[in-house]
Amino acid sequence: MSEFIVHGIPGSPYGRAVLVALEEKGARYRFQGVAPGELRSARHLAIHPFGRVPVLVHADFRLYETAAILRYIERVLPSPALVPLATREVARMDQLMNVNDWYLFQGPGNVIGFQRIVGPKLMGLAPDETAIAAVLPKAHAVFEELSAQLGTQRHLAGDAFTLADAMIGPQMDFLAQTPEWEVLTHGRANLREWLARVGERPSFSATTWEKVARLAQAA
Ligand SMILES: N[C@@H](CCC(=O)N[C@@H](CS)C(=O)NCC(=O)O)C(=O)O
How far apart (Å, rounded) are the C-alpha atoms in residues 185 and 131? Predict the structure, then answer.
């Protein structure tokens, strides 16, 4: 099996989801760091026409969009399975992956994550408290739904760890670094317990921001 190359930005939750899946599969991969200022460069646009990360390269095949990448990894490396067997659990997993893209990232993830982490840490910007406050009602609605879907299960789409956990875990771990995490998980202890559970997996400890930054330097 050829090596996988992941183009990404250390700390990026979407990129981390791909790394988590590769780690879960025990795959051989290389992380190619992309500087945030390079996203709109001709070189990066040649591999991702929308100027985002991650991008997966596998031999002569190149793929962007995290959900598509995760499903590709699952198909080429089916074991251990990260997709449930039961039809309804697969449907829940798919639904959760879309919730991630449409409701968790768009607003809660990109606004709170940018204002609290990316802006201050990488660009020296002060957080825009008005923008954060504006997105909190939507964030509460998303956390309420995720908490309800999780219920008493061990993982988001059932008891087994699936692509939904690989995708949503990094987004939630990113938000867990912000003061809004306490507010958003208040009364939703199951989400805190789930994040602690997935965070203990070797695939999560191997893909922290610091570790991925070291992989990028070594590339
Ligand atoms: N729908 C894309 C979203 C990827 C995405 O938004 N990635 C962020 C980093 S976590 C990014 O590239 N941001 C750069 C930008 O918005 O300019 C996917 O699933 O891969």
Answer: 20
